[in-house]
Amino acid sequence: MNFENYVRELENLRKNYNKNLLRSWSPKGELFYKVDKSGNYKEFVGDTIVFFINKEEIKYISDIQNHLYKQLGNMFARKLSEKYFHVTLHDLCNLNVTKTIKECIEKNEEKIREVFNKIKDFQKITLETIGLYNGGSAIGTMLKPRTKKDFIKLMNLRKVFDELIKREDFYIPHITLGYYLTKDYNYSERNEIFNFLENEKIEFLIEFTFENLKYTLFTDMDNYIPIFPV
Is pLDDT at 161 greater than 90 in this prediction? Predict the structure, then answer.
């Protein structure tokens, strides 16, 4: 898929995912692994490759999150900590992938240094916002590569980590802002969320270098522990 088609597909997915809120309430099953009935985060262990957000860029995302929770906070799980804001580059081990999490992580930990040595010279990648979107278990800020060069660098970088666990799903760069509650949302509630996603205007750039990229463990959706490089 070329750059233009990739961006077009992201934009179409955002429109369709948001419209799904108006059609029915059908959250991803993973929501019930991650959030309890009180809106707190369940133990959900795994590892992943993420870009952590630069401190000076966290403010953009925090402002959006604060506005979301001011307007609709009673509809979402406990507010995520801004220090863990990130863009996942490549999912690895979690309950969606395997039931043997511990063994899966151990295999990755044996290989991770070698894999990172292959990409330590990658050039800066810039992403820009498309808009807010319904991710099925959470809402987030959908992002796209700013240029064709950024697209090529991003996809080549992501592919390197297929050496750990191969991913063939369509990649949606995003920053999670808030998880849904494990309840049935009525049409009025879903319409409120839809209107927020469609009408909240966001526009910013995020830049990533090797320093942002980390092999990371998580124990729940609000506790991410960078492991390598340190």
Answer: yes
47-91 per-position pLDDT tens digit: 999 999 999 999 999 999 999 999 998 999 999 999 999 999 999
- Domain around 34: 3-221
| Pairing outcome for strands 205-208 and 174-179 | unpaired
Is a pLDDT exceeding 90 seen at residue 45?
A: yes
For 182-187, the CB contacts below 8 A with 24+ separation are: 182/31, 182/32, 182/35, 182/36, 182/37, 184/25, 185/25, 185/75, 186/25, 187/22
For residue 221, count other CB atoms closer than 10 A to its CB: 21
Does the predicted model carry a pTM greater than 0.90? yes
Place of tokens 């590569």: 145
Q: How many CB atoms lie within 10 A of CB 164?
A: 21
User: Does any domain span residue 82?
Assistant: yes
Q: Do the domain assignments include residue 150?
A: yes
Q: Are strands 213-220 and 205-208 parallel, antiparallel or unpaired?
A: unpaired
Whether the per-residue pLDDT at 230 is higher than 80: the answer is: no
How many domains does the chain fold into?
Answer: 1
Sheet with 46-52, side-by-side order of all strands: 86-91, 46-52, 213-220, 223-228
Q: How far apart are CA 48 and CA 217, in angstroms?
A: 6
Backbone angles phi, psi at 42, to 5 degrees: -75, 160
Q: Residue 36 belongs to a domain with what CATH number?
A: 3.90.1140.10
Nearest to 57 by CA among 201, 209, 160: 209
Asked if residue 228 is part of any domain, the answer here is no
